[in-house]
C-alpha cells in the first residue's frame, strides 16, 4: 500500500483536509479536541520546564544546561501553537518538529500528538516512517539528557513501547473511521440504488400503460374511421342506420377520449401521485375476446372466431391479457390494411401446452391509399415485445396461401 493508493479523506479525522483540498471548517467536536490537545501539550510543557528549573536535585531529572531548558521551553510553546495546524500539514509538521526529539523534554506531549495525527491521517508506510525517525532520536536524547533513575536500555524500551502504543492507537482510529465511512457510503449507495429502482419501476409501469393505451386507442380510432367511412360512402342511408352509426361514433369517441385522458394523467403524474395506490380499471382477459369481436362485427367487419380453449378459467391473467391485445392488434391491422376482408381468429390451447392465438386475413389486393388508415407502425413491435416478455413466440407476415398471418404462442403452465 502506498500513499497514492490510499487517498486522504476529511472523515479520517473530523475537520481533516485532503491534500490539495480547501480548509475544512472545524466542527464543535473539532474545537473541543483541538483545545484539549493544546491544553495537554501546554500543561506538559509547563510542568516539564518547572521541574527542570527546580533547585532540588531529586526533581531536576533530565535537566541539562540552563540555557537548554530555556530554549526547550520556548520551542515547546511554538510547537503547542503549531498543533492548531496539525490536521492540515501533519507530515510537514512532524518533519519540522522531529529534531526537537533529540533534546526536548517540554515538547514530548506535542510530538506524540503530532505523530498520532500522522498515523490517523496518512497511510501506514508514512506513519511508520515518522515513528521510525522518532525512535532514531531516542539514543541521542538519552545521551544528552540521561535519566539517573533508569538504565539506558529501560529508558529506550519504555520510549519504544509508548511510541508504538501511539502508533497502534492511531491505526485503530484510522481503521474505525474508514469502516464508518465505508458503511455510510454503502448506505448512501443502497439508498441511491433503491431510488433508481423505484424510478425504473415507475418508468416501466408508465411504458406498460402507454403500450396498453396504444392498443386500445388504435382499436377505437379504427372503428371510428370505419363508421365515418360508411356514412361518407352511403349518404342516402336510412335515418335509422345513420343515427345508429352516429351513436357508435359518439360512444367510441367518448371512450377514446376517456382512455387518452387516463394515459396522459398517468404519464404526467408526479411520483407521489403515481404511487398513491389508486386502483386501476379492470384489465381485459381472454373472456373479453368475444365482446371485442362483436364490436368489430358491429362496425361491419366480417370476423370468424374458432375457439378451442380447454380450462380457460385456469389461464393466468397476464397471458389472457396478452392474448386479448394480440387479437385487438390483429383486428386493427385488418381494418387498416385489408378493409372489407374476412378475418379469421383462432384460439387454441390447454394447460401445459400453451395458448395459440392466430389472426388471418386475405392479403389486400389493389387497396387504394385513400382507404388505408394512418398508423405509427409500432403495433406489431409492441405485440412482439409483449410476447417476448411473456416468454412466448410471435410470427407475422404473408404465408404460403397468400394471406397475412399473425400468430403467437404464449406459455400456459399446467
From TrEMBL:
Keyword S-adenosyl-L-methionine: no
Coiled coil (UniProt feature): 173-204
UniProt keywords, alphabetically: ATP-binding, Coiled coil, Kinase, Membrane, Nucleotide-binding, Phosphoprotein, Transferase, Transmembrane, Transmembrane helix, Two-component regulatory system
Residues annotated as domain Signal transduction histidine kinase subgroup 3 dimerisation and phosphoacceptor: 205-269
Superkingdom assignment: Bacteria
Record-annotated membrane-spanning stretches: 31-47, 67-85, 92-118, 124-144, 156-175
Alphabetized InterPro entries for the sequence: HATPase_C_sf, Sensor_HK_TwoCompSys, Sig_transdc_His_kin_sub3_dim/P
Known catalytic reactions: ATP + protein L-histidine = ADP + protein N-phospho-L-histidine
Single GO cellular component term: membrane
Keyword field contains Iron: no
GO MF annotation list: ATP binding; phosphorelay sensor kinase activity; protein dimerization activity
Broadest EC class assigned to this enzyme: transferase
Name of the protein this chain belongs to: histidine kinase
Phylogenetic lineage: Bacteria, Bacillati, Actinomycetota, Actinomycetes, Micromonosporales
Amino acid at each position: 500500500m502506498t500513499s497514492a493508493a490510499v487517498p486522504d479523506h476529511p472523515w479520517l479525522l473530523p475537520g481533516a483536509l485532503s491534500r490539495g483540498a480547501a480548509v475544512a471548517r472545524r466542527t464543535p467536536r473539532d474545537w473541543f479536541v483541538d483545545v484539549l490537545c493544546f491544553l495537554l501539550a501546554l500543561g506538559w510543557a509547563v510542568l516539564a520546564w518547572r521541574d527542570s528549573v527546580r533547585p532540588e536535585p531529586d526533581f531536576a531529572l533530565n535537566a541539562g544546561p540552563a540555557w537548554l531548558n530555556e530554549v526547550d521551553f520556548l520551542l515547546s510553546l511554538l510547537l503547542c501553537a503549531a498543533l492548531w495546524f496539525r490536521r492540515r500539514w501533519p507530515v510537514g509538521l512532524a518533519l519540522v518538529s522531529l529534531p526537537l526529539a533529540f533534546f526536548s523534554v517540554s515538547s514530548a506531549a506535542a510530538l506524540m500528538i503530532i505523530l498520532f495525527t500522522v498515523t490517523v491521517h496518512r497511510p501506514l508506510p508514512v506513519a511508520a516512517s515518522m515513528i521510525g525517525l522518532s525512535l532514531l532520536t531516542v539514543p541521542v536524547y538519552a545521551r544528552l539528557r540521561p535519566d539517573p533513575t533508569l538504565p539506558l536500555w529501560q529508558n529506550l524500551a519504555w520510549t519504544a513501547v509508548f511510541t508504538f502504543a501511539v502508533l497502534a492507537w492511531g491505526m485503530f482510529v484510522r481503521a474505525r473511521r474508514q469502516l464508518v465511512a465505508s458503511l455510510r457510503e454503502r448506505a448512501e449507495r443502497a439508498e441511491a440504488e433503491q431510488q433508481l429502482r423505484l424510478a425504473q419501476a415507475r418508468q416501466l409501469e408508465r411504458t406498460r400503460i402507454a403500450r396498453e393505451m396504444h392498443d386500445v386507442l388504435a382499436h377505437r380510432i379504427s372503428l371510428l374511421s370505419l363508421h365515418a367511412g360508411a356514412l361518407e360512402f352511403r349518404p342516402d342511408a336510412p335515418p335509422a342506420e345513420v343515427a345508429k352509426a352516429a351513436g357508435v361514433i359518439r360512444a367510441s369517441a367518448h371512450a377514446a377520449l376517456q382512455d387518452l385522458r387516463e394515459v396522459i394523467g398517468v404519464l404526467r403524474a408526479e411520483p407521489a401521485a403515481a404511487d398513491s395506490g389508486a386502483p386501476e380499471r379492470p384489465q381485459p382477459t381472454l373472456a373479453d375476446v368475444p365482446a371485442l369481436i362483436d364490436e368489430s362485427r358491429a362496425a361491419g367487419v366480417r370476423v370468424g372466431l374458432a375457439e378451442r380453449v380447454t380450462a380457460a378459467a385456469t389461464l393466468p391473467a397476464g397471458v389472457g391479457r396478452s392474448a386479448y391485445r394480440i387479437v385487438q392488434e390483429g383486428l386493427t391491422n385488418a381494418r387498416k390494411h385489408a378493409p372489407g376482408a374476412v378475418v379469421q381468429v383462432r384460439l387454441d390451447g390447454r394447460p401445459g401446452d400453451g395458448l395459440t392465438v392466430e389472426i388471418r386475413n386475405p392479403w389486400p389486393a389493389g387497396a387504394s391509399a385513400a382507404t388505408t388508415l394512418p398508423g405509427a407502425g409500432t403495433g406489431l413491435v409492441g405485440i412482439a415485445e409483449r410476447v417476448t416478455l411473456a416468454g412466448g413466440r410471435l410470427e407475422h407476415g404473408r404465408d404460403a396461401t397468400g394471406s397475412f398471418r399473425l400468430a403467437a404462442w404464449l406459455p400456459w403452465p399446467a
